[in-house]
Design goal:
The protein has one helix and ten strands; from the N terminus they run ββββββββββα. The chain is mainly beta and about 140 residues long. The protein is elongated and about 45 Å long.
Length: about 140
């Protein structure tokens, strides 16, 4: 019999993490950010049966990398911390240079579903507001 916990109408099973079955999404439903602001990415922990799972020490099972190109890796601090439930984790970081980047989430063998996750960092508030204005018209 499976051990599970009920939290906000969802069942969370205690068990082993399956990295290829985990999923991720940008917080606030956007992948466009302003340079120097904190960026947040949520990872949903799942087992081999695609059930939400509460793994033991999930953060030690992942590697998280950010790159701007095939040769340029982000060298800043990346934190992978618990969220409101132990079936979710949050990746947080800040980038101060504008450009197009990719967030890789996985381990040395495989990545979570959808990885790498593209995102754009704009130079400042003027570029960010211009981007919003142009995209709201479309």
């Amino acid at each position: 019999m499976d051990d599970y916990f009920i939290f906000a109408e969802y069942k969370f099973y205690s068990g082993n993490l399956s990295i290829p079955n985990c999923v991720g999404e940008w917080m606030n439903a956007t992948n466009i950010f302003m340079a120097g602001k904190q960026m947040l990415f949520k990872v949903v922990f799942r087992d081999t049966n695609n059930r939400l799972v509460q793994p033991i020490f999930p953060y030690t099972q992942f590697s998280v990398n950010i790159s701007r190109s095939k040769t340029e890796k982000y060298a800043g601090t990346i934190n992978f911390v618990p969220w409101t439930s132990s079936s979710y984790g949050i990746i947080e970081f800040k980038i101060t240079s504008s450009g197009n980047y990719s967030l890789f989430v996985g381990n040395s063998i495989t990545e979570i579903e959808g990885s790498p996750f593209p995102f754009t960092v704009l130079a400042g508030i003027c570029a960010y507001l211009f981007f919003l204005k142009v995209n709201l018209r479309n």
